[in-house]
Amino acid sequence: MESLRLMLITSGGLGFMRPASGTWGSLPPPAVAFLMVLAGAPAWWRNSAMLAILFFSSGCCLVLGGWAERRFGKKDDGRIVADETAGQCLPLLLLPAWSLAAPERAACTIGAAFVLFRVMDIIKPPPARGLQRLKAGLGVLIDDLFAGLYAAIALQACLAMIAAL
After folding, report:
1. Cα separation of 127 and 154, whole Å?
2. Which of 8, 88, 90, 100 reaches 20 to 30 Å from 107, CA-CA?
3. What is the mean pLDDT of residues 116-134?
4. Would the pLDDT of 135 be above 90?
């Protein structure tokens, strides 16, 4: 049972990757989104996949976050990356079709979503940093959801400016 819990909270073991385990944990959603674009999947499939990953990873954090902190002996230990997996889904939702219309555009858009999320997750603009103090799984998860929200807003603003040109 412990190995299953570890696989879930570390996003399939990505939390054990070094360096920058949070970056490794952020990779599954953009990889899935890009593969779906390449496969020609409709937008609603891609959005549904991102929502499914978001809810599953969030659930793992909420249910296993406290256990993982006790297991690793540290608040929001770097090996806990299901929160990064969840947060990364937010900027990948509801992307305009034109921004994914060609593989090159999709790579740029999805790459920008990835970079923006990582930047927001690292700098943790208010109130994200303060929310980390919440107990157990909620404290593990909430700052990454805010980082994802900030990244989504920044990405959508950039895409709107590009579209206006």
Report:
1. 16
2. 8
3. 90
4. no
